[in-house]
Amino acid sequence: MHYDPVKKTLGNIFNATPLARILFYKLLDILLLRTWHIHRELRKWKKTAPARAHILDAGSGFGQYAYFMSGMSESYCVLGVDVKQDQVCDCNTFFRRIGRENALFRVDDLTTFRKDNCFDLVLCVDVMEHIEEDVKVMTNYCSSLKPGGLLIISTPSDQGGSDVHGDQDTSFIEEHVRDGYNMNEIKEKLKTAGFTRVKAHYSYGPPGQVSWRISMKYPMKLLNFSQLFLIVLPVYYLVVMPVAMVLNFIDSHAAHRSGTGLVVLAWK
Fold first, then answer.
1. Which H or E run contains 39?
2. Reduced to 3 DSSP states, what percent helix, strand and coil does the chain have, rounded to the nearest 5?
3. 243 located within any domain
4. What would the pLDDT profile of 201-222 be if each residue is shown by its tens digit?
5. CA–CA dist 154, 143 (Å, integer)
6. What pLDDT sits at residue 76?
7. Backbone angles phi, psi at 254, to 5 degrees
8. Residue 15's domain is classified under what CATH number?
9. Domain span at residue 172?
């Protein structure tokens, strides 16, 4: 399934007004399980973060994570980098319209983007599975972090990430260049890139996998088939959302022996 056209359609709908875009962010916060895991890690990081932290949102997309992080403290400075010019323009316009001056977005390629010893935190959510030259990008992250800085990655695992469970399966999302990372593989790659300490844990355990199917996979498949399904989505989510929220809470607060996602923390 081609995921980007569906995302573009949804983004255009919710880009009509600042209020609509904020509502869009809130819906993503509720429905996307990865967001529950990432917000939890960001809250932990904030407890020891510098008062005037500089943050890189690597592959900023719609800007929902930059919105969350720039709202954690007015003294934080967030730079969002993305290769898609339309999303960067939309984000800059929206953040200026709401008066959020501590976040800025620019068009750039993560395989070449590097600012030595600049950031206290690099956040990379659902990006590495789209990049062939992953070690090169990880090296750029390490160089861009200040000593002691933290990289947070969320990405599919090889335990069924991208909905691939066997040799005959293909990725649910065709834009992925890899189906998922082995936990030891991504740890070794990050150490090769220069990180001194790496931790990782599984996300999208059994509760999260059910949540993902009912809240994301099935609706996206329907929208990819026909955008007419936008009409029935509000009714569908009225039923599904409470169930998904309970499952997301359980998944983000439990330890999983395996899962279709990985949350990786790496320190310079």
1. helix 33-46
2. 50, 20, 30
3. no
4. 999 999 999 999 999 888 878 7
5. 20
6. 98
7. -120, 155
8. 3.40.50.150
9. 3-204+255-267
